[in-house]
TrEMBL record:
<dbReference type="GO" id="GO:0006310">
    <property type="term" value="P:DNA recombination"/>
</dbReference>
<dbReference type="InterPro" id="IPR011114">
    <property type="entry name" value="RuvA_C"/>
</dbReference>
<dbReference type="Pfam" id="PF14520">
    <property type="entry name" value="HHH_5"/>
</dbReference>
<dbReference type="GO" id="GO:0000400">
    <property type="term" value="F:four-way junction DNA binding"/>
</dbReference>
<keyword id="KW-0233">DNA recombination</keyword>
<dbReference type="GO" id="GO:0048476">
    <property type="term" value="C:Holliday junction resolvase complex"/>
</dbReference>
<dbReference type="InterPro" id="IPR000085">
    <property type="entry name" value="RuvA"/>
</dbReference>
<dbReference type="InterPro" id="IPR010994">
    <property type="entry name" value="RuvA_2-like"/>
</dbReference>
<dbReference type="InterPro" id="IPR013849">
    <property type="entry name" value="DNA_helicase_Holl-junc_RuvA_I"/>
</dbReference>
<keyword id="KW-0234">DNA repair</keyword>
<keyword id="KW-0347">Helicase</keyword>
<dbReference type="GO" id="GO:0006281">
    <property type="term" value="P:DNA repair"/>
</dbReference>
<protein>
    <recommendedName>
        <fullName>Holliday junction branch migration complex subunit RuvA</fullName>
    </recommendedName>
</protein>
<keyword id="KW-0238">DNA-binding</keyword>
<dbReference type="GO" id="GO:0009378">
    <property type="term" value="F:four-way junction helicase activity"/>
</dbReference>
<feature type="domain" description="Helix-hairpin-helix DNA-binding motif class 1">
    <location>
        <begin position="107"/>
        <end position="126"/>
    </location>
</feature>
<dbReference type="GO" id="GO:0005524">
    <property type="term" value="F:ATP binding"/>
</dbReference>
């Protein structure tokens, strides 16, 4: 049900977007809604997953089928719900994630928000060998991500510093896609903060 939605993107919120489909507004919860800023007021196709629970019926949206599939696989992991799966998808590089699962790199997996050692081990237990049937993990991915990158750690430190400076989550999320594209892998925390402040001042 609701494999995808095609319509006009009319609103971007902290955790979701609103799509107008023939006059009917659909609220779609996304890993990072602000990546769709360039599509505001334009037609957009979102791959969707309809999640039903006792107290709510929620629609989750993804840029492509790969994101959607990984979301469903994460939901199959004991201890991970939709919110936890979205937190992982918000900053994940899929080949990198699959490579980490295959090499049982729990240290890498715990770099994601809300993933502790127990959950990381559960991800490995439940998903190892099951993701490679769908996703191709190249040799380059295995080599490049043999250990957690300093960029991920330093990016996290930079984001925490921005919060300490008084910036709201909404403001930080709005520049995150540009920030990730604009920083070098070797960038340290201070360099990332300077780049982020530069982007925030342009808002």
């Amino acid at each position: 049900m609701f494999a995808y939605i095609r319509g006009q993107l009319v609103s971007i919120q902290d955790e979701s977007i609103v799509m107008d489909v023939n006059g009917l507004g659909y609220e779609v919860i996304c890993p990072n809604p602000f990546i769709y800023q360039d599509s505001l007021n334009k037609e957009l196709l979102i791959h969707t997953y309809f999640h039903v629970r006792e107290d709510a019926q929620l629609l989750y949206g993804f840029k492509n089928e790969d994101q959607k599939y990984l979301f469903t696989r994460l939901l199959s992991v004991s201890g991970i719900g939709p919110k936890g799966a979205l937190a992982i998808l918000a900053g994940v590089n899929i080949p990198e994630f699959v490579a980490a699962v295959e090499r049982e790199d729990d240290k890498f997996l715990t770099s994601f928000p809300g993933v502790g050692k127990k959950t990381a081990r559960q991800i490995i237990l439940d998903l190892k060998g099951k993701l490679t049937n769908t996703f191709t993990v190249s040799v380059d991915a295995e080599e490049n991500y043999a250990s957690p990158t300093t960029e991920r750690v330093e990016l996290k430190e930079a984001l925490e510093a921005l919060k300490a400076l008084g910036y709201m989550d909404r403001e930080i999320k709005s520049i995150l896609p540009q920030l990730k594209k604009g920083i070098e892998q070797s960038a340290n925390t201070d360099e990332i903060i300077r780049k982020a402040l530069s982007l925030l001042m342009k808002k």
